[in-house]
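Module 6 notes. Inverse folding takes a fixed backbone as the condition and produces residue identities as the prediction. Think of it as a translation problem where the source language is geometry and the target language is the twenty amino acids. Below is one complete input and output pair. Work through it position by position during the lab.
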């Protein structure tokens, strides 16, 4: 009779108790070709520092693959491998399984090794969604899939992805005289999709590189808890979003403070809001208007007042009517104008 594979121990990565406790060693260094102000490069740096040296990183095709492989040079200080565009899930699962076989055969030392696969929103939320979903169904293998989200296919000239926000100007949704708003879709909600659709997953979370210590601790928790885990990181992109690179950090904060990007983690089925998101939910911080966020980006320069008002109304609806803002889009109560059931 076949049996399940036992889950192997993970590294015990305790949270960093303040920035002074973060080690100085870097495992993602100079040598990449990212744009000035690139927050996607920042999450690679934080992710590698949080994971430490006993780590293997798998990177699917995307802007962070192109930027990290320049003429036989790479910024990675840990073993790294390029994988195909939609294969972040399958490559992570395959690597974790291969290590287990090698350890069982005595080919390599039997020790916990962090397996991290990163993907962009195109390779994760779109083309790689099926492979990631299949991987989340294998609770016996320890791995982390981190999706860095710059809300477009930034590697191939900024086309729309499943996580592109409403109304955004991209090379595939350029506003014109007849139609000002070309993208009518709302952003795909990846983290809850991973959690609700895969009930054995022990950890899912959202992070922002504008809160680096918290982001590193989320990565450390995801790598320590066991089984497949998923983190969704929002990454402002100066080129794709059309803003001065000096604003990268500020835009990450504004995404959170306007309520557009809620910060939370779901650990073994328990939801925890953190940072400004927790303060907003508890009434200790008033959400900033989305106008403050949208108008700092050239990709929304075509918006008129009614577009901003609509965007604001959707964010208000999320916070006022969703069962859990940013996570569960079921309404708290039946609308007053809904006819009674017969």
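Target side of the pair, the amino acids:
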């Amino acid at each position: 009779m076949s049996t399940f594979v036992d889950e192997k121990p993970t590294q015990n990565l305790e949270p960093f108790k303040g920035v002074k406790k973060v080690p100085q060693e870097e495992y993602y260094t100079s040598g990449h070709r990212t744009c000035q102000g690139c927050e996607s490069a920042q999450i690679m740096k934080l992710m590698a520092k949080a994971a430490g040296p006993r780590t293997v990183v798998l990177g699917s095709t995307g802007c962070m693959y192109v930027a990290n492989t320049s003429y036989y040079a790479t910024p990675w200080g840990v073993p790294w491998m390029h994988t195909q565009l939609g294969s972040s899930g399958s490559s992570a699962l395959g690597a974790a399984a291969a290590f287990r076989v090698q350890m069982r055969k005595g080919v390599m030392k039997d020790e916990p090794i962090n397996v991290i696969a990163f993907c962009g929103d195109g390779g994760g939320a779109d083309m790689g969604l099926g492979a990631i979903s299949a991987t989340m169904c294998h609770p016996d293998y320890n791995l982390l899939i981190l999706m860095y989200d710059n809300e477009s296919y930034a590697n191939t000239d900024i086309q729309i992805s499943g996580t592109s926000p409403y109304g955004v100007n991209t090379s595939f949704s350029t506003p014109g005289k007849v139609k000002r708003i070309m993208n009518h879709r709302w952003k795909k909600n990846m983290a809850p999709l991973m959690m609700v659709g895969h009930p054995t997953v022990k950890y899912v979370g959202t992070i922002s590189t504008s809160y680096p210590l918290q982001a590193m601790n989320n990565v450390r928790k995801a790598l320590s808890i066991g089984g497949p885990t998923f983190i969704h990181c929002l990454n402002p992109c100066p080129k794709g979003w059309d803003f001065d690179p000096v604003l990268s950090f500020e835009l990450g904060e504004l995404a959170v403070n306007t309520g557009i990007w809620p910060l939370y983690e779901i650990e073994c089925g328990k939801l925890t809001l953190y940072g400004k998101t927790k303060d907003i939910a508890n009434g200790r911080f008033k959400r900033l208007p989305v106008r403050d966020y949208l108008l700092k980006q050239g990709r929304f320069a075509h918006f008129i007042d009614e577009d901003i008002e609509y965007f604001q109304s959707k964010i208000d609806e999320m916070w006022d009517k969703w069962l859990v803002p940013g996570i569960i889009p079921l309404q708290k109560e039946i609308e007053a104008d809904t006819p009674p059931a017969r």
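Reference fact for the lab report: The chain has one domain: 19-320.
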